[in-house]
Design brief:
This protein is an alpha/beta fold. It is built from eleven helices and eleven strands. Helix 1 packs across helix 3, helix 1 packs across helix 4 and helix 5 crosses helix 11. The termini are far apart.
Length: 298
């Protein structure tokens, strides 16, 4: 059945691992961590794979390298295969598994960490690693199986990825009273792109919430950063309702902005069904995480 694969030398797990490691960091030098011996080894191993498959697997890109279309496909197949082997090994050795979860920085701190630090984790069975990454990066890494689960704002991910709705939220414009602006004056200043504003641009990427010509007072990495800046009383901020400064209502007002207030955003739990076929234990973790996050968001 596989006679042709083993009819000549050049294919091995070590060589496939070299391709995965170089593809992941975009450079043979980085993959080898500056070790000239390992650099030579990685170059040779990838060249042997190219000779075996009769195709280019990597190509130069600036000072680094990137996988070709064939290289990406071989990396995808290899990662799928090695993930299965790794899960089988962990099962045979009864080792604890680590589940990698990608989400925005705000979602991780506001919802995910409280769930993961709950008493149910004391039972063991698995560990968890969180990574603050963009929706596009989550989608790519779910396909690559370098993330086990993700939380995104878009339900329409490319096949075969699947999603489950966790909850919805609204965006609001919050204004420190120290700016001494009325609701109407603040709304007018916002429409004229003249309101000092902190925006979590990364977490609103892809959504047409503010004009591209708006001269922002401060661009933040996360809603949590925008909230912290607003609490200093110098700038207004666009904040999700679950981060509204309700404990400091005497110091803030919510500006009535219909075009902002009418927008509904969503959180979706996302996974790759291929992972579940490779690791049936992940089904239980997916269901537990999705249900626990739904309850936390509510």
């Amino acid at each position: 059945m596989f006679a042709k694969l083993f009819a000549e030398s050049g294919l091995s797990l070590d060589r496939l691992r070299a391709l995965l490691e170089v593809g992941a960091v975009g450079s043979i030098v980085k993959a080898a961590q500056g070790d000239p011996v390992r650099q030579s080894q990685y170059s040779r191993q990838i060249k042997e794979l190219e000779d075996f498959f009769r195709t280019r697997l990597i190509e130069r890109q600036g000072k680094g390298t990137r996988l070709t279309a064939d290289g990406k496909e071989l990396a995808r197949i290899s990662r799928f295969f090695m993930t299965g082997l790794s899960n089988f090994q962990r099962g045979c050795l009864a080792e604890e598994q680590t589940f990698r979860i990608g989400a925005s920085a705000t979602f991780i701190r506001r919802f995910l960490l409280p769930v993961l630090s709950s008493s149910s984790l004391c039972k063991g069975e698995a560990t968890y690693a969180t990574e603050a990454v963009s929706d596009d990066e989550i989608e790519r890494r779910l396909h690559d199986l370098t993330l086990d689960f993700g939380v995104v704002r878009n339900a329409e991910l490319s096949r075969p990825l699947q999603t489950k709705l966790l909850g919805n939220w609204k965006l609001g414009l919050w204004l420190p009273k120290s700016l001494r602006l009325s609701q109407s004056k603040a709304a007018e200043a916002f429409e004229q792109n003249d309101l000092p504003l902190a925006v979590a641009k990364k977490e609103l990427e892809g959504f047409d919430v503010i004009s591209s010509s708006y001269e922002l007072g401060l661009i933040c990495d996360s809603f949590l950063d925008a909230l912290a800046v607003t609490e200093n009383g110098e700038v207004a901020a666009l904040l999700p309702d679950f981060l509204a400064p309700v404990k400091s209502t005497k110091s803030f007002i919510r500006v009535n902005m219909p075009k902002i207030d009418s927008i509904t955003f969503s959180f979706y739990f996302a996974w790759n069904p291929r992972l579940l076929r490779l690791n049936p234990h992940a089904i239980r973790k997916r269901d537990w995480l999705a249900n626990a996050l739904c309850e936390e968001i509510l």
